[in-house]
Design brief:
single chain, mainly alpha
């Protein structure tokens, strides 16, 4: 009887984080554009919402959409920025270089704020292992709101990483490739009610 062949696990595609970033930019742009249309239609000429509760709920939906869109990028984001920064430093492009350097620094600072929001949420789960699902959802909503501005920064400046990649390829180099791209490891959640990410 023939022995079954071992299952081979394909090596992770080093370009996958770039694909995830491009997907985030599309999804985030859709979420923010929808939010901007909503605010125009549901506020008066001075910018005051017609219904504050509904407005706040709709803003929370936008914040949650941004958080979820960025989740597949978050673990590789620092490596992407480092790779892009190295590419900019090693190649003397005349076009875009000063802007890219500033944008990459801005993205690093924004990533720190996103990480801080996640750390605060995880600390809540640790400190309150028996929190109700309602309390967990409220903490998650606070995380989304706290990270919203930083995620918007990634929407507005994240394309610079793709631009650096494209410029590197045009220069005859392989582009931004993360040498050690590994699958995301799930963060263990404390015991208690079902946790939403």
């Amino acid at each position: 009887m023939p022995r079954p062949s071992p299952t081979t696990v394909p090596a992770p595609d080093p370009a996958e984080p770039l694909v995830r970033l491009a997907r985030f930019l599309r999804q985030a742009d859709t979420a923010v554009s929808s939010w901007e249309r909503y605010t125009i239609e549901h506020t008066d000429l001075d910018g005051w919402p017609f219904d504050q509760d509904v407005y706040d709920a709709r803003e929370a939906e936008k914040d949650r959409a941004l958080w979820r869109a960025f989740a597949p990028v978050r673990d590789a984001a620092a490596d992407l920025l480092n790779a892009a920064g190295t590419a900019v430093a090693e190649r003397a492009w005349k076009t875009g270089q000063s802007r890219w350097t500033w944008q990459l620094d801005h993205l690093r600072e924004a990533l720190d704020r996103i990480t801080a929001a996640q750390d605060t949420f995880l600390q809540f789960l640790t400190d309150e292992p028996h929190a109700t699902e309602e309390a967990v959802q409220a903490a998650a909503a606070a995380r989304h709101a706290r990270a919203s501005e930083a995620l918007s920064d990634w929407l507005h400046h994240g394309r610079s990483v793709l631009e650096v990649h494209a410029a590197t390829v045009r220069a005859g180099q392989p582009g931004i490739r993360l040498a050690a791209s590994v699958p995301r490891a799930a963060t263990p959640a404390p015991a208690g009610p079902a946790r939403r990410r």
